[in-house]
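Dear Dr. H.,

I hope your travels went smoothly. While you were away I took the liberty of generating a structure for the chain from your last submission, since the lab meeting agenda had it listed for discussion. I wanted you to have the full record in hand beforehand rather than looking at slides cold. The sequence, exactly as received, is reproduced here:
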Amino acid sequence: MSLKPVNLEFEIIDWGPKIDLGSEGHGVLTPEQVVASSSWMTYKSGNAKEMAVEALESETGPDETLDEKTRKSLMNSVGRGHASLSTSAYVAVLFTDSSKFVDSLFTGTPFGSSLMPSGRRIPVDEDSIVAPESIANGDTEIQKIYYETSVKNIRFYQELIKSGVSKQDAAKITQYGTKGGGFMLLPLETIVSFRQEFESQGIWIPDEGHMFVRKLEDRMKDLGMDNLYWARAFAPRNAYPYPNIFRNPDSSSLVNDLMGRYPNVDKPVVNILQFYDTENFRQELEKLRELQTEIAKNPDSLKERWNELMNLRRDIISRYRNIISVSSLSKISWRVWGEVKRHRTVPQQPESIYSAVRRAASVFDKYRHNIMDDNLSDDITAELSEVFMTPTLDGDLKKRWLNNVLDSFDTYNFLLNRGIKEKDAIFVIPRGVRLHVHKTFDLHNLMEGYIPVRTCLTCEPEMLATTRMEAAAVKQLVPEYLGRFIRPKCSSVGFCPETFKDYEKCRQVDIDIGFEYAEGFHNEMRKEQKRLMKDAKRN
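The corresponding predicted structure, in token form, is as follows:
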């Protein structure tokens, strides 16, 4: 048995902003010096570079240095909570060693940006298993049951792949307690939001969260943003909240309240929060429909004018973005939530993952003997599927899937009974456990953002099915003139932006085109995109 403890390591590959004043003989301005001197532009004409040079050249003593002026300025402005200054400095981080929990912990923030290894595409193997210290350094029995459960699920995952089950479905039987990595670009304000959230939730945050913030804080002085960070961290103003599943499961929340109101979310519960059905908006979408029909009448027209169609859509959405607000309460797997949270333009609030695990473990325990004896009615199967995603599997594979899930929950409860905290025991929980998520869509996310992207057949199957139900529900609630534009992303431009192989899976461009869509035309459109890019670069 080889059980590796979680070892969070990352490299700061860039930080800023920095300004090189070498030509003026003053070296390099640190990020907080750049931010402070930029803020002085609100009081005096000139640019930040000129003001920094002026401050450097007017130094008369220790209280008049640029560093001291910067410190005083930041304590005054950032200390009052002005987030515009703390969002102007950034840190770029490359994880060199971590678990996959860093994805769930950090990448839901709306002001950061991240690139993470795909949990539905990259294979998982036994060598990738990691565990928090309380388990990795626990007694032999704790280590043994955690490792054996992890290996059993990973081997079953590999067997499912060989039997033809897609990686994205099979991966939901594996845990997040495996090696991870990735890249993140974080404004300082976002790091402050992590600090505040992690302090608030304390024991519910996996150790990597606390460890990451502490290590970043230890580097702030070296990065030249020490005063900026700490002034913002202790300002009497909270940072913007972000979706966090690692929360106290016993606290109330909007999601919990809605779960009480809608106890059986077998399909998304969609509501129109507001919609201003104005005549001007109706006329604008009619113009868009007419242009769409005109441009898509033949291949040459679409090839020459597709960007015109996209520009009109953008203009209408920009002018009417808040004309509608739609809410959705859905139940999705932890794995799929990993993609949902990355839509930073969609306000969202997830259920505590611990609440979801408790519920799922209880339901699986309730039907323990049915699962073990393979005595499952349709009603029982449906109830199990409501708390843990189960793909379409043949008899024996389905039986083993459910038994593996049951064993995982048993291991989780065993660890809790042995004194392991929930934030550590959860490392063994497979990614298929379902949690509730509340989302809010504006016009952009109905016509161009979330819904169009996530109703494309290239989307993860479970997420595709959920989003299609959301789209269908919205169309039932809005006038037809708007509903006709709530479609997959190909409808925005009249051609498939994916490969022709991807197009052949659906065999339609979801827009009324007046000609047969063929591979030759598809490839021409891809070439046209490249030509436009090259022309723009030359100009």
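Two observations you may find useful: The mean pLDDT is 92. The first helix runs from residue 31 to 39.

With kind regards,
E. W.
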